Amino acid sequence: MWLDGAEVAAEVRALRPDYAALLIVAEGLRPGPSDQASEAVLADAEDRAREHLGGVAGSEPAERGARPEELPQVAEWREAFRAFGAKPQRTRPSVEALLRRVETGLPRIDRITDAYNAVSIARLLPVGGEDLARYEGPARLVRATGDEDFDTTADGQPAIEHPEPGEVVWRDDRGVTCRRWNWRQCVRTRITHSTTTAMFVLDGLGALGVGGLRAAEAELTESLAGLSPGATFASRLLGQ
Q: What is the DSSP letter of 86?
């Protein structure tokens, strides 16, 4: 089973002993552009995110409560980024980046991505989705040496970058699939309109806890099952 080979390296555990990842493999998904069903899931999550922030739909920024980085679940991710040398005010944890867009509305990307973005902002944790058919070997969370390939785009053209030495990255046998823990995913394994088998990474630190990870897992699988009747799921908890 693919999940059996996934791992969190010891050097990452040492950096944040409270870290845990919950990996989900989903098969039989029905991909495609955003539609009425995925819109409903994401719109509901945006309302819940506004409640976390203490705001009201349509309120002006000055009328809101907490800023995203003031929420304990987000503040911990900023600390984790600083621990390996990243500057979270420049390269934000993915959940913070999404929460900052809630007031004006998140972009609608596709049915699968909308579903996992919804769980991220509603449950206050980073969530990533990858096309498992594009993976080569198991997923590993490691500290980079700096010579790994990361395929991305620059000025609209394909480009290869390399992580900083010591940077926390997800990778497979071919290269880096996500830089700076959960900041940016590569092009090769991204979800597309033809993705039917996907892997999702749910990231948790101490403020969220394993209970929060399991609640997010339940919500994500329920949403995906609603969007893709007949889909099947398997999961594995790493780091705890």
A: -
**Residue 176 contacts residue 44 (beta carbons within 8 Å):** no
Q: Can you tell me whether residue 236 is helix, strand or coil?
A: strand
Inter-residue contact 204 to 19 (CB < 8 Å) = yes
Tens-digit pLDDT profile for residues 17-45: 999 999 999 999 999 999 999 999 999 99
CB atoms within 10 A of CB 223: 25
b/e code 34-61 from CB counts within 10 Å (16+ = b): beeebeebbeebbeebbebbebeeeeee
Task: List 198's β-bridge partners, or say none.
Answer: 26, 131
Could you tell me which residues come within 8 angstroms of residue 112 by beta carbon, excluding any fewer than 6 positions away?
A: 29, 31, 129, 191, 195, 198, 224, 227
What is the pTM assigned to this prediction? 0.94
User: pLDDT tens-digit profile of 66-81?
Assistant: 899 999 999 999 999 9
Tokens of 127: 């969530």
In angstroms, rounded to a whole number, what is the distance separating the alpha carbons of residues 238 and 240? Answer: 6
pLDDT category at 240 given cuts 50, 70, 90 is low
d(C-alpha 120, C-alpha 3), whole Å: 22
Instruction: For residue 134, give the DSSP letter.
Output: G
By C-alpha distance, which of 102, 150, 149, 99 is closest to 125? 99
d(CA 137, CA 3) in angstroms, rounded, equals 10
Coil vs helix vs strand at 75: helix
